[in-house]
């Protein structure tokens, strides 16, 4: 029988014809022929052991031969089995699939089947299980020299046999996922061990397996669970750390990075033939492979450049096997995968499809107008930079995938333009063999890069054009003035065409207009350039913004980044250059008004609890405030925002942005300060329907605005307005306007003492001393309700007293004894000593045993509210030798939270006089004032 099987492989035609005739007479005897072959493959001497090896940070499960065995017998049996399968075809596979191994008539084979735990499998499944065992197995280290040569032949025969069984068999072949995992592992090992001879055979098998397995859900990390021994081994064959798609991407990525160009071509052909099965696996297969191809192409182009750019022509060329064929093959794969990814993410009836059909710039204005709001560059940015949308993550998955696919398109265009640029430099005259090959390769690579760009542009004209225009700005930045003038007419014509159809080409506005402010030679020949720039900028600024570009859709992270970049460019380049380009004040005002309307306004007019905006918005406002022609554009918006009740809900860090703007607002309008001061009135409304609480809140906010104007200005800036301020504060202290307003008065006094020289504030002390003593004396007789406005008034008065103790002004030192003990009794009180200072008396009263229960619970509150003690850590910038405020909290919930302050303020003040002298930590004082003015976190 073995002689007859050998005859099926004979090169003699007569012998092979006789063997085939004998086999046709025994078509129903395939099982009897299979029994001795399976018996040989189930040799008990073959004992592969399961192991896991780590190759390039990936754990791969394999089988290892721990003992030697007769490989020649196994190889002979596999050769005969291959010949039998090729001859029998589908009939052989059908019979093998319908017969079970446990029904064999050979008792010796039955015993080996039971030992191998294959009794539940058919002949076909049993053969596949044995073939996969041989495919996964490698000799152990000590047996490598003896078994490795024939082991490679066994792997090759197994690959051919699997190809026959899968290509001629039925698609629902059991264990198809196991076959795929085993083939992928063997390919991964072959790639990293540089076993080139086997990869092509395995790729053919894997191609057939991939198509047979196309109906399975590729999103599962492991193979589907099937109640067979063969299918249960799928987990053993697959790497435990990677999903199937991740492992596939890893294998292909490593394979196309091999140095053998012929094998790389096989892998790219395999990828192009099988990628259709992965078109739904966009995020796990297509996009990572596109990244890999882009990186590989970039490296190939760089290697090509290094190979031919040798400074000394007599020097030896670097060794390289790179030709234009590799570039062409990889470009074909990149182009195919990229177009497939973009097609999979394109929404039905989207604007992108319409643009692809009409050709971008030449699209019908009437049809493009329905594709979303108009408004040019500034309309593109309406409402995008608001704080709420920046934090929002509610973006549809389809939009995210579309964005990721277009990001890969940009990477591909970058690589193709890089290849074009480098090959254009390397193309030269044919002088010797080196320059001949250099020119030949460079021309063919550049032609292929151009064809790829043309095809991408034909499919996605708008997106490709957007990527290409991004190169204009860096080009003009580096170009000389004469060169810039030569390309200026073309750029100007293109910009006017873009502006003529802004709705369809909104995203092209920024990269097109950005080069307008690039470095251009300021000679007489360039006289028209500023005028052209003026015309373009003015026409663009007059665009009417009907709605946001997304019409309610959430912007992706990339779009937000682009919009932020646009705003930053306007703030750093355009607005500072308005004086140079736009001499006319009316044009400058018009441009700035449009920026305020489309960019700054939507960012500040939010519905959030606080008015928070991106720092680039404030940068744009600051630049406008430096231009006298733009005052009318930004002044009304800043004024409206400043009078908004949510203005002071921002964090203290907002002072660095708002301070210069508020000072610019007051400076630009001399009546602004008087108007704000007039709103701080003690006269109550005569309307009986007026809400007194809202009236008190409005009066407190008006005073807070006046306070912030003083805080944001330099020292003695508002000395001329001091009489008005003093009059308002004295009237408020004496009038029954509510505890909330009185608390704001003490905050304003703190700012006033830091911004006005104290020699000008002597007239305030009689009223201040009277009101402070009246307030603190009332605490001795009347309890302060928790959480009340009166409590916050007491806390604000304590903060004012704390600040005066830090500043130690001459006027206050005269009256200091009324509030704190300024003698040595503060440190060493006599036994019969009774405190006379009001703060010490309050401290003794609050520490009375009758209120101990409340006082005991105040310790934790003191710490949480930032009442400084000796162990309190210093903040950044604070000096341990300088005096600084004790109270750091913004609000308190109970009077007992001030126990520590009342009890220790005299001691702290007395010690600070001798420890710090006249040194004051002004940075800590400023931080304390900003924390109290701005109530945000």
From TrEMBL:
From start to end residue, where is composition biased (Low complexity)? Answer: 356-369, 851-866
| Domain DOP1-like C-terminal residue range list | 474-914
GO CC entries: cytosol; endosome; trans-Golgi network
One biological process term from GO is: Golgi to endosome transport
List, alphabetically, the SUPFAM superfamilies matched.
ARM repeat
Q: Tell me the Pfam families matching this sequence.
A: DOP1_C, TPR_DOP1
Q: List, alphabetically, the InterPro entries matched.
A: ARM-type_fold (IPR016024), DOP1 (IPR040314), DOP1_C (IPR056457), TPR_DOP1 (IPR056459)
Where does the secretion signal sit in this chain?
Answer: none
Q: Where is this region: Disordered?
A: 348-373, 521-556, 846-882
Tell me where in this chain the DOP1-like TPR domain is found. Answer: 222-307
The name this protein carries in UniProt is Dopey N-terminal domain-containing protein
Identify the species of origin.
Rhodotorula paludigena
């Amino acid at each position: 029988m073995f002689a007859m099987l050998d005859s099926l492989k004979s090169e003699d035609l007569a012998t092979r014809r006789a063997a085939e005739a004998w086999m046709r007479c025994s078509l129903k005897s395939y099982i009897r022929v299979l029994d001795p072959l399976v018996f040989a493959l189930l040799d008990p001497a073959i004992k592969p052991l399961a192991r896991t090896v780590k190759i390039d940070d990936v754990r791969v499960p394999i089988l290892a031969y721990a003992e030697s065995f007769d490989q020649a017998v196994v190889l002979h049996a596999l050769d005969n089995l291959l010949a039998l399968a090729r001859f029998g075809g589908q009939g052989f596979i059908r019979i093998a699939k319908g017969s079970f191994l446990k029904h064999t008539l050979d008792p010796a084979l039955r015993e080996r089947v039971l030992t191998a735990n294959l009794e539940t499998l058919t002949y076909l499944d049993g053969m596949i299980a044995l073939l996969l065992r041989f495919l996964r197995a490698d000799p152990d280290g000590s047996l490598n020299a003896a078994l490795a040569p024939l082991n490679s032949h066994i792997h090759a025969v197994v690959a051919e046999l699997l190809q026959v069984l899968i290509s001629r068999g039925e698609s629902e072949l059991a264990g198809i996922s196991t076959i795929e995992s085993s083939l992928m592992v063997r390919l991964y090992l072959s790639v990293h061990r540089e076993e080139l001879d086997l990869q092509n055979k395995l790729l053919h098998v894997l191609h057939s397996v991939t198509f047979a397995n196309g109906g399975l859900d590729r999103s599962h990390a492991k193979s589907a669970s099937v109640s067979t021994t063969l299918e249960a081994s799928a987990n053993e064959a697959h790497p435990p750390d990677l999903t199937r798609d991740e492992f596939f991407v890893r294998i292909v990525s490593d394979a196309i990075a091999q140095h053998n160009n012929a094998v790389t071509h096989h892998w790219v052909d395999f990828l192009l033939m099988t990628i259709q099965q992965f078109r739904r696996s966009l995020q796990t297969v297509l996009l990572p492979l596109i990244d890999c191809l882009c990186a590989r192409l970039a490296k190939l182009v760089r290697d090509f450049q290094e190979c031919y750019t040798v400074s000394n022509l007599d020097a030896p060329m670097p060794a390289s096997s790179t030709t234009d064929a590799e570039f062409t093959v990889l470009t074909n794969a990149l182009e195919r995968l990229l177009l497939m990814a973009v097609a999979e993410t394109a929404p039905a009836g989207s604007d992108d499809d319409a643009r692809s059909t009409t050709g971008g710039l030449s699209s019908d204005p009437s049809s493009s107008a329905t594709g979303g709001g108009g408004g040019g560059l500034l309309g593109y940015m309406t409402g995008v930079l608001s704080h709420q949308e920046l934090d929002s993550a509610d973006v549809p998955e389809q939009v995210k995938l579309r964005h990721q696919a277009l990001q890969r398109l940009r990477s591909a265009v970058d690589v193709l333009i890089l290849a074009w640029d480098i090959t254009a430099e390397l193309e030269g005259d044919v002088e010797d063999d080196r320059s001949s090959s250099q020119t030949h390769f460079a021309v063919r690579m550049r032609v292929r890069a151009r064809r790829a760009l043309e095809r991408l542009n034909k499919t996605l004209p708008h997106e490709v054009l957007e990527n290409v225009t991004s190169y204009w700005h860096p080009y003009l930045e580096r170009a000389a003035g004469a060169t810039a003038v030569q390309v200026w007419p073309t750029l100007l014509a293109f910009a006017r065409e873009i502006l003529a159809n802004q709705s369809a080409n909104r995203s092209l506005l920024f990269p097109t207009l950005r080069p307008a402010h690039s470095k251009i030679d300021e000679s007489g020949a360039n006289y028209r350039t500023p005028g052209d720039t003026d015309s373009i900028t003015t026409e663009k600024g007059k665009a009417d913004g009907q709605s946001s570009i997304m019409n309610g859709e959430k912007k992706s992270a990339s779009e937000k980044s682009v919009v932020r970049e646009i705003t930053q460019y306007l703030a750093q380049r355009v607005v500072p250059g308005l004086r140079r380009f736009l001499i006319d004040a009316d044009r400058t005002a018009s441009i700035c008004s449009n920026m305020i309307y489309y960019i700054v306004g939507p960012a500040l007019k939010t519905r959030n609890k606080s008015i928070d905006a991106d720092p680039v918005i404030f940068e744009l406002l600051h630049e406008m405030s430096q231009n006298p022609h733009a005052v009318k554009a930004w002044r009304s918006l800043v004024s409206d925002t400043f009078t908004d009740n949510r203005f002071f809900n921002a964090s203290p860090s907002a002072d660095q942005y708002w301070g210069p703007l508020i000072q610019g607002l007051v400076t630009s309008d001399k009546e602004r300060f008087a108007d704000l001061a007039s709103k701080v009135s003690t006269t109550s409304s005569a309307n009986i329907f007026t809400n007194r609480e809202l009236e008190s809140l409005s009066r407190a906010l008006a005073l807070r605005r006046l306070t912030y104007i003083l805080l944001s200005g330099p020292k003695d800036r508002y000395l001329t307005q001091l009489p008005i301020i003093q009059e308002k504060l004295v009237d408020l202290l004496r009038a029954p306007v509510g505890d909330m307003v009185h608390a704001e008065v003490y905050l304003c006094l703190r700012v006033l003492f830091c911004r006005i020289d104290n020699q000008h504030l002597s007239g305030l002390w009689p009223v201040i001393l009277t009101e402070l003593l009246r307030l603190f004396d009332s605490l001795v007789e009347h309890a302060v309700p928790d959480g009340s406005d009166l409590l916050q008034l007491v806390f604000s008065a304590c903060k004012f007293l704390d600040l005066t103790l830090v500043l130690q002004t001459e006027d206050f030192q005269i009256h200091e004894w009324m509030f704190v003990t300024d003698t040595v009794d503060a440190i060493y009180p006599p036994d019969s000593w009774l405190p006379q200072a009001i703060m010490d008396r309050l401290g003794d009263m609050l520490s009375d045993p009758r209120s101990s229960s409340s006082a005991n619970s105040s310790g934790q509150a003191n710490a949480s509210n930032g009442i400084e003690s000796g162990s309190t850590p210093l903040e950044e910038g604070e000096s341990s030798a300088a005096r600084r405020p004790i109270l750091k909290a913004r609000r308190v919930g109970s009077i007992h939270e001030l126990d520590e302050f009342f009890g220790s303020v005299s001691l702290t003040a007395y010690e600070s006089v001798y420890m710090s002298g006249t040194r004051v930590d002004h940075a800590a004082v400023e931080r304390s004032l900003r924390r109290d003015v701005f109530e945000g976190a």
